[in-house]
Amino acid sequence: MARTQGSHSDITGPRVREAALALFAQHGFAAVSMRQIARAVGVQAGALYNYTPDKQTLLYELMRAHMEDLLAAWDRAAPAGAALERLEAFTRFHIRFNTSRADAVFVSYMELRNLAPENFKAIERLRREYETRLESILRAGADAGSFAIAEPRIASMALIAMLTGVNTWFRADGRLDLASVEAIYWDMVRKSVAV
Amino acid sequence: MARTQGSHSDITGPRVREAALALFAQHGFAAVSMRQIARAVGVQAGALYNYTPDKQTLLYELMRAHMEDLLAAWDRAAPAGAALERLEAFTRFHIRFNTSRADAVFVSYMELRNLAPENFKAIERLRREYETRLESILRAGADAGSFAIAEPRIASMALIAMLTGVNTWFRADGRLDLASVEAIYWDMVRKSVAV
DNA sequence: GATTTAACTGAACATTCGTTCAGATCAAAG
DNA sequence: CTTTGATCTGAACGAATGTTCAGTTAAATC
Q1: What percentage of chain B exceeds 90 in pLDDT?
Q2: Nearest CA to the C1' of C30 belongs to which residue?
Q3: Count of Cβ atoms closer than 10 Å to residue A134 Cβ
Q4: A195 — contact with chain B (CB < 8 Å)?
Q5: Element spanning A136, H or E
Q6: Are B134 and B157 in contact, with CB atoms under 8 Å apart?
Q7: According to the model, what pLDDT value does residue A6 have?
């Protein structure tokens, strides 16, 4: 038995996913060919099929991995305590996590319509789970009387849309650093749910 | 000279654009073929080239028309007066206009990366113009002391992202009607910029 | 140094793509 | 009724698509 571990596949596999993610983000899933991905990795197109059964599954696995990373990272970072502190933590976490993985965020939102139905359902469930994390915070704050929110579910969608929007304009080498961006958005979030 | 006006082209032309818009919104520009569009219209693929020089221009013209409609509609609807009233008008207008043209909004955001560079620049200019309309309102309110906004440009991006997010969940036959949605969002917008 | 086999190549498969164009169609103008 | 030309068909073009697979390569094991 030869080349059981630590072989090329440990290197090529991640590189396939990295290249696919970058290309999907730049040109879109449908506009990127398996040959383009292979060229970026430095192999022939056929070699990609050692790492994914097909193009569709490659997309799905990228999105699933991203959504599960997102949930796991938040569950690790989420503090206990008052709703206001939890909301601030969520706001800053969302901005930091999403700006640090712009390609994955972009693909996970833009390519939903290119998922096969069963894959779409799985990703939507994960997305919904994340939204519910914020919704719970808003409900807790509303129940405690520290937030004024008529519709917690809709407010959570509104806030997530606002926060994710940072990705459309933020550049790491721009005028504002992440700390300033966090402060600006937290100020708006805090006030928007204030009593 | 025969069939100079009021002929098939007055009917087929709009139908081509309608079919293309709906298909682009559903499957994405790159995933939709000229033959699919032709089938939806009820003609052969070759006939489409009486109405667009190529697929790229078809996409560009759809996006350009949408952005110019948006700007013209706002400029007609925009009231004079205090910043707070102008901001409320903008909030309600944005929600109403965007939910009434979900396909065009979706395509105009999602397919930016499929535009040829010069077309991209033209659409980006129009988008920037619209963002500046809101930014001006925020600056006026900040100068007058009625808003507390450190970064008007960024606040305008944040608010537009939040408002456009309505399209991801709003359904005309859902639990909430548009008036309720407008009220919920206006409440959040108003508070987020409050002193 | 011989053997094993994971990893990859390179060619091939049937489809589909955007676009072109000669010719058919047919409603309106003369 | 004849002419005109806008409109559309139907076939064709080369290029590109996702995927398969027999065969080559070479690193790790014995």
Answers
A1: 94
A2: B1
A3: 23
A4: no
A5: helix A117-144
A6: no
A7: 46
Q: Are A165 and B157 in contact (CB under 8 A)?
A: yes
Q: Dump pLDDT digits (tens) for A35-61.
A: 999 999 999 999 999 999 999 999 999
CATH homologous superfamily of A62-192 equals Tetracycline Repressor, domain 2 (1.10.357.10)
Question: Residue A18: helix, strand or coil by DSSP?
Answer: helix
Helix (H, G, I), strand (E, B) or coil at B119: helix
How far, in Å, is the CA of B43 from the C1' of nucleotide D9? 9
Q: Which architecture characterizes domain B7-52 according to CATH?
A: Orthogonal Bundle (1.10)
Q: Which run of H or of E encompasses B17? A: helix B8-27
Scan for tokens 């305590």, then name that residue: A81
Residue B160 is predicted with a pLDDT of 98
Structure-block tokens of residue B138: 């925020």
Instruction: Give contacts of B31 with chain A, Cβ < 8 Å.
Output: 30, 114
d(CA B86, CA A37): 49
- The residues spanned by each domain of chain B are 7-52, 62-192
Residues 6+ apart with CB under 8 A from A68: A126
Q: Which residue of B has its CA nearest to A163?
A: B158
Q: How confident is the model over A59-90, as pLDDT tens digits?
A: 999 999 999 999 999 999 999 999 999 999 99
